[in-house]
Write a structure and sequence with these properties.
EC number: 2.7.4.1
Helix content: 25-40%
Strand content: 15-25%
Family: Belongs to the polyphosphate kinase 1 (PPK1) family.
Radius of gyration: 27 Å
Protein name: Polyphosphate kinase
Cofactor: Mg(2+)
Distance between the termini: 49 Å
Structural class: alpha/beta
Organism: Marivirga arenosa
Shape: globular
Length: 705
């Protein structure tokens, strides 16, 4: 099926392909690397992020597509295409994206390296003494780590690792027949630095390590003829789904370890290679891995392979002052005395609820509360869900301290958090050895909800101190991701959260929660009910409106209800950072729906759901996006915000997102995005404005008139 015909079929669909929508998102990240107003190091950072994003996309989304293709299973994309035509379209779009990355790097970024006192150099740029040192570095450090692996009639095909730089070397013994060739592979270990560094006066030269290896490769193939040397990199399928089985709980950790190992030998879904590759060698690889030209991404000799390598330059100590620092967090509106009175957190929470908006507000109040609880003899128990942790986690340390002090600690540790599985298993084991009650996930569900409860015995009663959030208990990402969290001692929240913990740690089926909406129990149904209520209000001539801020919108049932509400006259304002499978502005379908995406200095991670409710807004925050996996395969929670001041604060987050004209994009009906421009208006950048929010600025907040 021709690409033009495929594109025509896609455009007719009322739904947008999840995978093609994701590629549009990565283009928006790439746009940040185009901004000349940013420093070169910021621009390189965003280019590196697009490369890492694309790696994960191939491992997971392209890998998932190949799960269907390889096992002959039918798959119909939201675009209406079957698996093979969609594969063609998707890989073509990926090829186009890589061309855009390369063009940006070569034409806009690399030419300004030298004026910023660095250069990605070649060995020929070095002086004799510099070259001698570089070759000495190869001989002493790199050479002992390299292992040539031959593939012939006597040696099996070696296991080539995911995302490593690999040299294929075609050789022949001198004097042998022309067609008596051998193929060998040399993998550059991941613990070798990506660039060899040369400091020259006030300039840094970065020599790609592959240049150094290639120049010395004859030292690994003595007394034979080297016919060709090709650099390449492979990406393997990293998608795996734990299927429901009768004994999954008994063998859960072992099953996880087995699945993790498959990432090393999963099928190859992409090969990035020097465009002048040896054809004999490539035929062997294509036959071996069952790939074709669509999976082959070519680069020119001398090009930098894998832009995520740029992190070595971005984070170099020589340039540490070149990336603008993040402004210091400001105190939460409901906790202005945070810095001076953090010791009194338990008393303050008995007085009022606190809304945190990261990274504008610090995560310190939560960590302070947990660390104080760990040392407090009045604390009886701590219950917590963990999805991702910081590397040197204060959260883990506080829980360990609490267990040492005899406090009952229950932790639901999600060991299936993608790419954090090994770290989470290790941390969970530490907690378990310290005496914590640790649950390694809930059978086939991922625990994605973010909840904390501290039970404290006080003079008058037992008080439960709570934290509900959209983001992880990770002090590192809390400085980089926008998230919201609610701290409270409210008994209604406490009862709901206690019930939810009983569900996930024991065997309990609670009645309706009063302020929580949970998945997989009833989240989709409840959200659809709220959407339908707005539609009923619109039909009855009552005020109506929906405003939702999420990472991804992919659930078909929910999208259909949003379409129906739009047709009933409900104005719907969606702020969707990444994947959006809904088409806005289509005549007769979604004319009352707008979609915008915010991309900028911070990763927009908060999830907020607003329903006008005839002038008495219902506002929820929490961990869940509008995705099938969120509704059906994850433990998620959304919490209702009832305090009027905090509700206004959350509504203001939505209002500012709708006002932004610096980081925002508007989605067109054709699924492409257009950058929002300030024009004659004053610039409004939410990543600056949220540091300046005052109680007065949120008083008159309105999302719909």
């Amino acid at each position: 099926m021709a690409i033009d015909r495929i594109s025509s079929l896609i455009n007719k669909s009322n739904l947008v392909s999840r995978d093609l929508s994701w590629l549009r998102f990565n283009y928006r990240v790439l746009d940040l690397a185009r901004k000349p107003s940013r420093t070169i190091f910021e621009r390189l950072k965003f280019l590196a992020i697009t490369a890492s994003n694309l790696d994960e996309f191939f491992m997971i989304r392209v890998g998932s597509l190949y799960n269907y293709i390889d096992y002959g299973r039918e798959r119909v994309d939201y675009s209406g295409l079957r698996e093979l035509p969609f594969r063609k379209k998707l890989l073509t779009e990926c090829q186009n994206f890589v061309k855009e990355q390369n063009k940006l790097f070569e034409n806009e970024l690399e030419p300004i390296f030298e004026e910023n006192n660095f250069k990605i150099a070649k060995l020929t740029d070095l002086t004799d003494s510099e070259l001698k040192k570089a070759n000495g570095f190869f001989d002493k450090i790199i050479f002992p780590m390299l292992t040539p692996m031959v593939y012939d009639n006597y040696h099996t095909f070696p296991i080539l690792m995911n995302k490593l730089l690999i040299f294929s070397v075609v050789t022949r013994t001198f004097g042998e027949k022309k067609d008596n060739k051998k193929l060998s592979f040399i993998q550059i270990p991941q613990n070798i630095q990506r660039f060899y560094e040369v400091e020259r006066d006030d300039k840094m030269l970065f020599i790609p390590i592959e240049e150094l290896v290639k120049a010395n490769i004859d030292k690994l193939f003595r007394n034979i003829e080297i016919l060709s040397v090709n650099l390449f990199r492979i990406t393997r399928n990293g998608d795996f789904t734990l299927e429901e089985s009768d004994d999954i709980e008994a063998n859960f950790l072992e099953e996880m370890r087995k699945k993790l190992k498959t990432r090393k030998t999963g099928r190859v879904v992409r090969i990035e290679i020097d465009k002048d590759y040896d054809k004999w060698m490539m035929k062997i690889l294509c036959d071996r891995w069952e790939i074709d030209k669509d999976n082959i991404f070519k680069f020119k000799k001398g090009d930098l392979v894998d832009y995520s390598a740029l992190w070595q330059i971005i984070k170099h100590t020589e340039f540490k002052d070149k990336i603008p620092s993040t402004p210091d967090p400001v105190p939460p509106l409901a906790f202005p005395e945070h810095k001076s009175d953090s010791d009194n957190i338990f008393e303050i929470l008995k007085d009022r609820d606190i809304l945190l908006h990261h990274p504008y507000n610090n995560i310190e109040p939560v960590i302070d509360m947990l660390e104080k609880a760990a040392e407090d003899p009045k604390v009886l128990s701590i219950k917590l869900t963990i999805y991702r942790l910081a590397e040197d986690s204060r959260i883990t340390n506080a829980l360990l301290k609490a267990a040492e002090n005899g406090i009952h600690v229950s932790v639901l540790f999600e060991v299936k958090a993608r790419f954090d599985e090994e770290n989470n298993i290790r941390e969970a084991k530490r907690l378990q050895k310290a005496g914590c009650f640790v649950i390694y996930g809930i059978s086939r569900y991922k625990t994605h909800t973010k909840l904390l409860m501290i039970v404290r015995k006080e003079k008058e009663k037992v008080t439960r101190y709570l934290h509900m959030a959209s983001g992880n208990y990770n002090e590192d990402t809390a400085r980089l991701y926008t998230d919201i969290g609610l701290m409270s001692t409210d008994e209604v929240y406490a009862q709901d959260i206690s019930e939810f913990f009983n569900v996930i740690t024991g065997h309990s089926l609670p009645h309706e929660y009063e302020r929580l909406i949970t998945a997989p129990k009833d989240m989709r149904t409840r959200l659809i009910g709220l959407i339908q209520q707005e539609a009923e209000n619109a039909k009855a001539g009552l005020p109506s409106g929906i405003c939702i801020k999420i990472n991804s919108l992919e659930d078909k049932e929910t999208i259909e209800e949003l379409y129906a509400a739009s047709q009933a006259g409900v104005r719907i304002k969606l702020i969707v950072r990444g994947i959006c499978c809904l088409r806005p502005g289509r005549k007769g379908l979604s004319e009352n729906i707008t979609v915008r995406s915010i991309v900028g200095n911070y990763l927009e991670h908060s999830r907020i759901y607003y329903f006008h409710n005839n002038g008495d807004p219902k506002v929820y925050g929490g961990s869940a996006d509008m995705m099938v996996r969120s509704f059906e395969r994850r433990l998620e929670s959304l919490f209702l915000i009832v305090d009027e001041t905090l509700k206004k604060q959350v509504m203001n987050i939505l209002r500012y997102n709708l006002q932004d004209n610096v980081n925002a994009y508007e989605m067109n009906e054709d699924s492409f995005y257009k950058e929002v421009e300030a024009g004659d208006e004053a610039s409004f950048n939410i990543h600056e404005e949220f540091f300046n929010v005052t109680p007065e600025s949120i008083e008159d907040v309105r999302l719909f008139e």
